[in-house]
Design goal:
Its EC number is 5.1.3.14. InterPro entries: UDP_GlcNAc_Epimerase_2_dom (IPR003331), WecB-like (IPR029767). This is UDP-N-acetylglucosamine 2-epimerase (non-hydrolyzing). Belongs to the UDP-N-acetylglucosamine 2-epimerase family. The chain folds into two domains: 184 residues, Rossmann fold; 156 residues, 3-Layer(aba) Sandwich (Rossmann fold). It has a seven-stranded parallel sheet, sandwiched between helices. The protein has 16 helices and 13 strands. Helix 2 links the parallel strand 2 and strand 3. By secondary structure, it is of the alpha/beta class.
Amino acid sequence: MKVLFVFGTRPEGIKMAPIIKEIEKRHDLESYTCVTGQHREMLDQVLEIFDIKPDYDLNIFKKGQSLTDVTTKTLLGLEDILEELKPDILMVQGDTTTVFAAALAAFYKKIKIGHVEAGLRSGNLYSPYPEEANRKLTGVLANYHFAPTESNRENLLKEGYDDKNIFITGNTVIDALKYSVKEDFVFDDEILNNLDYNKEVVLLTAHRRENWGEPMENIFSAIRRVILERENVEIVFPIHLNPIVRSTAKKYFSDLDRVHLIEPLSYMPFSNLMARVKFVVTDSGGVQEEAPALGKPVLVLRNETERMEGVEAKTAKLVGTNSQDVYDSIINLLDDKNLYEKMSKAINPYGDGHAAKKIVNILEGMD
């Protein structure tokens, strides 16, 4: 069986890598990798960490690229590759524009599609944007749905998908953490090496499109208030490369010594930083899965999340973007030891670190 993996961003790369590495151990599957380069620098870091050498690189990234740019370049770039390689199945992961465009390209060639991390739903087509639409559209095209949790499976069943094509596997992001978190890890950034992690060090990430503008201003004003009121709190904020995020962050934090604005981190240092901080405040999707595996509570800066399992398991709390709500949630987690203990020790609902093995076993069993 000939399997083609297509991905284009750092999160996709991280979550695909354990499957690709697992396939390398098998002899009855022929594996090929195509990266679109929807993200460039951050994706390349992941490829290096996991020692993945793509067979094809569409290299579509350009500054200021639109969703239309990513979609059309991926479609056009994959057309010749699919014609030449003729894979038996094309594997995509998650909900980026690369995922939807790659699935569409495979559909046009009548090639089977496997969707890793299938069945996530927020219930709002515009939040997260464009991810909610991307994953739903990919689901329509996919032949096999690798759902991380029972809740994801139920979402797919409600939408009419055949249960025999849905497989609960756990999330491969938990597998990936096994490669990366090390007790003796040394950061390249001396700021991170010199922080006293016995104090109240909080990791912040914020970048989602739906939070640009007023929501992000609300979030950052709440965090600024926490810093001004609490002398023992330090924030580490790896700032996304997007200029809107950067300008807003500098507006609120550039004069605060205990907010460390650093460049985006590659996967290894980010995972190891997450393992050392007290808790995480984020609007990211993947971090909601990773942090609980490390015993770190997560405050989710969104009004909806497609990862409700974490909220239901009490590893995460959905706090929204209202400034007072964000402030109150951070203060509560800093002050309430019982709340912190419950969140940090809740069982991670996203799997046991063997998702890649399960997925490859399923692929081996296909006709």
